[in-house]
Design brief:
alpha/beta; five-stranded mixed β-sheet; binds acetyl coenzyme *A
């Protein structure tokens, strides 16, 4: 029987430190009014000295394991979507696994802000093919470490955080029903961090204070995002064999409210069916969709069988969209090492 990959656990973590638009007014030539009207962002969470991509990922992952009723020993695979791993050798996924315990396979995946949907697609293939039963997928980034806080065109946008989900094999159509992935590498210079990697530009010299900063052509990224998000979202719905009316919730990458509005219009969805939290977190890159997912779930917006559209764009330039069916139907309790009363209750009700 065809295995599906249901989302059975979820968790999120953001740093405590809040950076408001008023704080930014004191740092660069900007205003709360400009930021709010152009982006929709009011404040964002930024890492303090002790926060890392790993610490946020582990906190989100522990919650996800707890909601799924699993332990790290139950996991077959950990995939971390990030463009800001704490180090390149080893992978972020191994750092996370080291903290959580267990011996799951572990690797990172890079697709910037589209990374979580790319990672969810990858993890889903492992379950669909029968190779694995339980996978932890994390989207985590600490991009503010690479933001130049004297550059008003970028420093207003970003925040830090992590979100995590557990995927488990299910006999029912749950989890990803469709996937649309794409990239346009020719446009990479519209959004990148030069010198963050094995290749260091000569201009950096040998100066130890050299620090790469995120560079962005906002107008180009904006134009790309409006088209890519809309097209990918529409395609994901038709690939799932659904109509726009069948969509219960849109959970988009949280970069700019105007871009989100445009995507919602393409799907003919009222804003009540769109989860927006960028006013509180800004753009948390790969973490934005799983954080929004957790919030939507905790707010009681997602019921068993709900059809959700995830859609994201980001550096690469890359884009990704997927229709995900919410719920734990068809997940076998017997397949687990640990008991989960939620799954038992769902099975009893069906
Ligand atoms: N405060 C005040 N004025 C500003 C600010 C600021 N923070 N930033 C720029 N401006 C000025 C500009 O200098 C410009 O002035 P000028 O006309 O005198 O030259 C004016 O505002 C308009 O600038 P634009 O860049 O045209 O402003 P726009 O309406 O496009 O908004 C923004 C800029 C918010 C960056 C928008 O282009 C955007 O959101 N782009 C997408 C960016 C994005 O989402 N990036 C993340 C991708 S995800 C990932 O992979 C990490």
């Amino acid at each position: 029987m065809m295995q599906h990959a249901a989302i059975t656990g979820w968790g999120m973590a953001v740093p405590e430190r809040v950076l408001t638009n008023a704080d930014l007014e004191r740092m660069v030539d900007t205003s709360d009014e400009w930021i709010l009207s152009r982006t929709g962002i009011r404040e964002r969470r930024v890492v303090g000295p002790r926060d890392t991509t790993t610490s946020l990922s582990v906190a989100a992952a522990r919650q996800a394991l707890e909601t799924a009723g699993l332990t790290a020993d139950d996991l077959d695979l950990i995939v971390v979507a990030t463009c800001t791993p704490d180090q390149f050798l080893v992978s972020e996924a191994c750092l996370v696994q080291g903290e959580l315990g267990g011996n799951a396979a572990a690797f990172d995946l890079g697709a910037a802000c589209a990374g979580f949907v790319y990672a969810l697609s990858t993890a889903t293939q492992f379950i669909r093919s029968g190779v694995y039963q339980r996978v932890l997928v994390i989207g985590a980034d600490t991009l503010t470490r690479f933001v130049d806080y004297s550059d008003r065109s970028t420093c207003i946008l970003f925040g830090d955080g992590a979100g995590a989900v557990i995927l488990e094999a299910s006999d029912e159509p749950r989890g990803m029903l469709s996937t649309v992935l794409g990239a346009d590498g020719a446009g990479y210079k519209h959004l990148y961090i030069p010198g963050w990697g094995a290749f260091v530009p000569e201009s950096a010299g040998i100066f130890p204070e050299y620090r790469p900063y995120l560079q962005m052509n906002g107008r180009e990224v904006f134009r790309f995002a409006v088209t890519a998000m809309g097209d990918a979202a529409v395609e994901s719905v038709s690939k799932a064999g659904l109509e726009f009316d069948d969509i219960d919730m849109l959970i988009p990458h949280q970069a700019n409210l105007r871009i989100i509005d445009a995507a919602a219009r393409r799907l003919n969805l009222p804003m009540e069916k769109v989860w927006v939290n960028l006013d509180r977190y800004g753009n948390t890159s790969a973490a934005s969709i799983p954080i929004a997912l957790v919030e939507a779930q905790l707010a009681g917006k997602l019921s068993e069988g709900a059809n959700i559209v995830f859609v994201a764009f980001g550096g690469g330039l890359a884009w990704a969209a997927s229709v995900v069916r919410w719920g734990v139907a068809g997940v076998s309790r017997l397949a687990r090492k640990t008991d989960d009363t939620r799954v038992v209750a769902a099975a009893a009700a069906s």
